[in-house]
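HUMAN: Spend a minute on the protein record below and explain its fold to me.
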Amino acid sequence: MSIADMPHFSLEQVAAGCRAEAERSRSTELGYCFELFRRALEQLDQAAWQAVVAQYQRLILRWLHGVGLSTDDTLAEDVAHEVIERFWRTLAGRCTPLTARFPHVGALLKYMRQCAVTTVLDRRRSERQRERLLEQAQHAYQLDLPVATAGEDDIVERIARSEQLHRVRAWVKAEVGDPLEQLVLRLSYSDDLSPAEIASRYPEHFADAALVRQIKERVLRRARRALLDSGTDAAEPLSD
């Protein structure tokens, strides 16, 4: 069999070959598993992606337990799902061929393991943040602040949203200098206008609603990249 013939094989042949390949030494690989990933991530073949998940979910669970995740089966399965989603989100449908980034399936699995470790670290960071917010909530109770009439989870949510909104506003103030971008943000979020309404009110600036949406989406992409890198989810305060 030639590697060049692999794309012509049926999915069942490739998946079966990958299962057999995974049981053997890496030096004997023929490329079935890599072809399975290629179909899933480059061709966005959902059946191939399901075969990838079925093949590697148990391996992901072993990795998660290996980095100290709780042995609770339900939690582990939830986190494994997050790992799979992260892996898919960062690699699926990219313009760069898979072979340009990953020379063999071992490199792909190394990246998948990195996704598992990162997911666990993100979970731990979120847990520490929640503990800190709970301490603030308890402090609010002790001081008998107005929020004391609300439930504990509600207080934590309010504090988290307040901190998140503060970070988003700080980013906008520091990074959005273009007057048209500032105008679109103000009209969208302060005045609650739709792109069509903005275009009709300010035709001298915006030819149509599509241009307003384009400007808005451009700012949102920058905000999400910057704030996700700093550990803040910009999706809620600056939603589409």
Remarks:
- The mean pLDDT is 79.
